[in-house]
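During the no-cost extension, the postdoctoral fellow (Dr. R.K.) reprocessed legacy sequence entries with the updated structure-token encoder. One reprocessed record is reproduced below for audit purposes.
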Amino acid sequence: MSKAVIFSIITVFALAAQAESAKSLLSENGVAEATCIPLSSIESKCFVISGNNKFDISKVESANLGKIGVRKRADYSKIISFPSKWLKASDAELMVEITTKAWCEGKQHTLVEPVYIKGGVYLQR
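Re-encoded structure tokens follow.
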């Protein structure tokens, strides 16, 4: 097999593995999608996509981790964030619940935080 073919096969498997680890949730009415993509074993990038708009809501992961206490990300062995459910909101608003699971010192912590988007702006608590 040529190096180009081997490289292509490896690239396809790497992309497939990354796609499998991304977690997405479509809203009930199908107008929005929330997704979290792992950047590493301890960090995710999260977005809400609605029409042509993409909102970076990645700060929700840090907000969830802050509920455990003040720690550096390096203190965690694994952190996974994902959209867990869409919450009721008006037609001009989007609200989705993001769950973060974090492992530290042999214990798993599960934390939940709502994400609220109104008027095209991500509002934090």
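Confidence is low (pLDDT under 50) at residues 2-20. The longest helix spans residues 3-21. The remaining legacy entries will be reprocessed before the final report is submitted.
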